[in-house]
Each structure stands twice: as structure tokens, then as C-alpha cells.
Amino acid sequence: MEAADFLLTRRVRQNHALEHATVTILAHKLPGLSVSARSNTRGFTIFADVDPALVRRCAGEALARLRAGEAELAIHPNCGTNLAVGMSLAMIGSLWSLTAMRARTRVASALASSVAGAMAARPLGSLAQKYLTTLPDLRDVRIVDVRTRRLFGRRVVETLTADM
């Protein structure tokens, strides 16, 4: 068991890696595509009206490429992890700025920490993805089903995974 497994389960991290790789491949096939997605223990859901057959092909390609060693596909520049890391840094810096004695120093420190958090979000978020929120080792994962369903009146595509 890895240390990151205490935050997220191994399967969630694997599905998160597969989600990122699938979305990356899907975006190359559909330029201008705007999607969001979420992973869980059962697989991942793409919140967009896309063809499930295309998602199945892209997920299959993603699985094969991750298994072949293309671990960089597991890291996505628009992942929510980046946002969470940036916001956390800004919040910690802002809280720390409250310890300053002078009001001007508090304001300047809060502003500086917000800027620093925004600047560090992507590089540190990528590291967090690599070591904490994704796991590109998918030897024991298979895609069981890709299906559409309605969620709050919108069509979403759900990809289900299981053990080999």
C-alpha cells in the first residue's frame, strides 16, 4: 500500500489516471471539446454530451497507452487537483498573513500569497497528481462498460472499470 492510498483508494487513483488519459485522447479527436469529469471506485463519468462509442474507443486506447508506459497521460493540466493545490496555498498564505502586526503588511501578504498560490498551482498540482491523486499502473484494470445516462437533465457518459 502506498502513502497516497490513505487519501484516495488505489482504484480511484487508477480510474483518475484513466479518466485523464481518456479526456486527453478525446480532446485530440474533438478539438474545442469542453468537458469535466469525475472518478470514483467504479470508474469515471464525463459530464458532456459525447458519443459513448467514441468514449469507449478513447478509453480503450488510453488503457493500452498507459499500460505501455505513457504515464504522462495520467497528468492533466486542467485537473481540479491543480485548483485545490493553488487555493490551499493561497489560503494558508492568507491565514499566515493575519499574524502580521500592521494592517498594510497583512493586506500585502494576503495579496502576495494569493498570487504565489496561483503561480504554483499547475507545477505543484502536477506533482500532487503524479504522487497522490493518479496511478497510471493499470495492469489489473479492465473496462467493463461505457454507457450514457441522464443526470439532472443532462446526458453524461459513464465508464465502468473492474479488476482483471
In short:
With 164 residues, the chain is α+β, with helices and mostly antiparallel strands. The protein contains four helices and four strands, in the order αββαααββ.
- Percent helix, as a range, is 40-55%
Point out poorly predicted stretches: none
Overall 3D geometry? elongated
According to CATH, what is the class of the largest domain? Answer: Alpha Beta
Q: What's the pLDDT, averaged over the residues? A: 91
Q: How many β strands by DSSP?
A: 4
Could you tell me the radius of gyration in angstroms?
A: 19 Å
Structural class: alpha+beta
Instruction: Summarize the biggest pleated sheet.
Output: 4 strands, antiparallel
Order of helices and strands: HEEHHHEE
What is the tally of helical segments?
4
What is the name of the CATH architecture of the largest domain?
2-Layer Sandwich
Q: How many structural units, i.e. domains?
A: 2
What does this structure look like?
Strand 3 and strand 4 form a beta hairpin. The protein is elongated and about 60 Å long. It has 164 residues and is an alpha+beta fold. A four-stranded antiparallel beta sheet has the order 1-2-4-3, with helices on one face. It is built from four helices and four strands; from the N terminus they run αββαααββ. The chain has helices at residues 10-29, 52-67, 80-97, 103-133, and strands at residues 37-40, 43-46, 141-151, 154-163. The protein has two domains: 9-75 and 134-163, 2-Layer Sandwich (Threonyl-tRNA Synthetase, Chain A, domain 2); 80-128, no CATH class.
